[in-house]
Design brief:
The chain is α+β, with helices and mostly antiparallel strands. Helices cover about 35% and strands about 20% of the residues. It is built from 21 helices and 19 strands. The chain has helices at about 35-40, 65, 70-75, 80-100, 130-140, 175-180, 195-200, 225-240, 255-260, 290-300, 320-340, 365-375, 375-380, 395-405, 410-425, 430, 480-485, 490-495, 525-530, 535-545, 560-565; strands at about 5-10, 10-15, 45, 60, 100-110, 115-120, 125, 145-150, 155-160, 185, 270-275, 280-285, 300-310, 435-440, 450-455, 460-465, 470-480, 500-505, 515-520. Strand 5 and strand 6 form a beta hairpin. Helix 1 packs antiparallel against helix 4, helix 12 crosses helix 13 and helix 15 packs parallel to helix 19 (about 525-530). It starts with 5 loop residues before the first strand and ends in a 7-residue tail after the last helix.
Length: about 575
Amino acid sequence: MLVTTFVLDGGNWVVDNDATGIVEAGTLIVDRENAMFDALCSHVPSYMSSGWPDTGHRRTIDIREYLDSDDEAHSKQFDLNVLYPLAEILSIVSSAARSGWQTALDHNLSVVGERSILLTATPPEKIDFDSKPTREMAESHQLAPHALRWIRTIDAWTLGEPVEPHSTEQPNLRRALDDIELFPASFALTPDAAAAITGRWHSSGSLSGPSVLPSRPFAHEPTPTAAELQNRAQDITQWATEHGFSEPLLPQPTTVAAFLADRASGTAGYYVLEFADGQCYIGESVDIASRLAQHRNRFRDITTIRVRPEIDAAVQTSRLDHKRLLRLRERQLIHHAQRSNLLARNVNEMATLIGDSRHLDDIISEAQQRLWLDDPDTVNRADSTTQRIDHSQFLGAADNFRRFTSLPESAEVLELIGHYLTRCVPYPLQTEYQSWSVSCLPTTRSIPRRLSCVSIAMTETFVVNMDASGTIGGFIQVNDAELFSVGPPSELAFIRRHPHATLHAAHYEESGPGQSTIFAHSLAQLHRLLDDVAVTRAAATTALNIMRKGPSMHRRSHCPQLVAAAFELPAAQ
């Protein structure tokens, strides 16, 4: 028998060749974006492959090669009537694990050549339901352990005779699938983790807690000591060396130009500016020397510059393509620098903004920002600001709003927007239009169709849309460090509180690393996301950090009428 153990390494499921194969009861398993299913499909034991293509000396095969293939030769070699049911069986394992079932999957080859698969599943000990119907069904339905055995015949997988697990009740395949799908938000957990994983909800009176982030980057920093400066310089040196940058050079355009010319490496590439306070700035340019001259007009405390020429021979196309490559790699460098705890003065691609905000600090004081970050719900509720925007200046938006209100779901969408603004946006009626805007039925050709979009600076942070079938969904951008504050357990907790939501890394330049976009596929899912204090806490941190980077850049599409309706305010005159 071949025992294959998977472990979670850096967000990916990988084979652990040194593992014992034993997973302790209660172990938390995170299956993000079907990673576990992919791992299972990629490691099917070769001895299960009778009648399949020749596997040579491989111990395992990756059936995804054939699931996704359009090659007729593969289709003839591989009986897809056998393959697809096998993939469905493997999908049960990842679905069960994600829903809190303790599962074991055994591929067996008997001495007489019979191939079989045995799946055993023990139901979760605790259940958290994401809908009233699910809760009502659970009251009249008892979960039972399952043991299911499929036998490989010539052209199919057949569910065999029931196997005794820990119960006399013997469900069939459909019953097993029904149980797993009926309780997608259920989970097994230890008593001390129960409160964290079951979650806290605004609708139950809970409020977003204080930020878990260790620093307040907008607080004025005291002058660093000599020891701190030395440590920062050493950190920059180590990081720059690891990423292929030169030794420090004098910050003079002629010095940089001569350095690049001596190496016949062109003028384009990446650079790191070092400042007198131990901070840095990471950039890219098609002409590094000229770009340095621009920086010298802005920054008066540059002490050195390090450069890394871009000499990728594959870039032989247009200047635009070259610039796109430079921007992509610059982004990676900035993200790596933040993960290495360098203090970077960059604005775009930064998860947080170091130093003063030339935009937001003039609207809301730093003390007010810190107060809000620690308790956004209470602070926003206590803010007595009235709407300051003159509706008569937005007649086009008024027409869109009238059409919006004719939609059957408009009241629910307004409620969602109100929840997002009051729970996640700093002092929303003070910062409206200056720092954020919200559109109403914007003119776009995108599918799904936008109903409304809240944008902070340049970034779309909360969107409600409608697909071609009329289903309303949307997405919210959040800060990973806040949402997953205790690592995999809190990520598991989120997935099990919101089993139908999907997570993807955010790609906006202003967002920086460690940001995710949560996609919801129904109004109910959006409501549940905005009811979860962990989600609104993470969205609030993202909103403030982006707001500090600059003013609203989508003011032309702002709809103050929608804001007034979401807050149930009288129309401003």
